[in-house]
Amino acid sequence: MKISFKFGDKVLCLPAKAVSEHLADATREELCVLLSLAADPTADADSICSEIGIDQDEFMKAVSFWRGSGAVTVSLKDGEKLPSSRKKGEKQKKDASSNAASDKASADKESKKPASPVPNSSPVYSTAQLADFIEEDPSLRVFIENCQQIMGKIFSSAEAASLIGTVRYLDVSTDYIALLCAFAISHGKRSVRYVEKMAIGLYDEGITKYGELELHLKKLNKAEEMLPKIRKMFGLGDRALTAKEKKAIDRWCGEFEFEFDLIEKAYEITVTNTGKAALPYCNSILENWYNAGYKTAAEIDSATEEYKNKKAAAGNGSFDTDDFFEAALKRSYEITGGV
Predict the structure, then answer these.
(1) CA dist 124 to 10, 110, 132, 226, 264, Å?
(2) Residue 279 contacts residue 248 (beta carbons within 8 Å)
(3) What are the tens digits of pLDDT across the range 11-36?
(4) How far is it, in rounded angstroms, from Cα 184 to Cα 187?
């Protein structure tokens, strides 16, 4: 029997001696990583993991194996570290979590339509399938070219397949994914895998239309702009927010759509009434204002003035901010323990 390779317009090159000497010892994952790297040395780890259905830990172990065999050299960034290289003849150890992750990735690939929630990656399409999709819908070529311009790089076939797969799998528009690419770049993220994971997360939240996404990203950007000011005001420093703190601040900036001056006013009332920067107390104030329909600091000033006038008309000219706010806040503050 005679077998001949059909190279087409690309050739895959491998170091024969180093590979052949370790071929019998290599696992499926290690072989897949080697072939993926040889086919496209510029592909990032996320793309390769998504394409062949492995996790980052398995990828790093595979790279370490081939470095130890002498097949590849590896330049590590600051803070990066490869696991110990598995020697020839040494069995690769797999723990239960790795097996579970691999099984899950395989199951994800077979799934065609999204469930709720959807798996954390879209289906993996071959180069031939990708070509068929583009032939059926030429606008997909324009879509990929547009996303490449946005992200400032030429996609590998795996990256292009990932974006097209995400469009088809989640049934979202190409403009939706292009907007996510622009958001990713604006936050220093150049990975297509990041865009794919974000799209799936948003799908789980029910954000599937372009207009919904545009509004959501606008709120995210606003929250990110305001967060440093809020941290400084409450003396939170650089520490990680607690789940309750994050939820409260996300609501102020997102759901409530409050401007910073309104949050600052609630903060000042909090410190006046409690003697400290009690975030739960401040949250109660802002929740009450939101439920009452107040949107701006000017509306609060107007409501305060109106309350003063009513007190004066009733023959009681004295006014204390506690009269206006504390009654509604006292119970919620006691429930939170004032922390």
Answers:
(1) 21, 9, 14, 39, 48
(2) yes
(3) 677 888 777 888 888 888 888 888 88
(4) 5
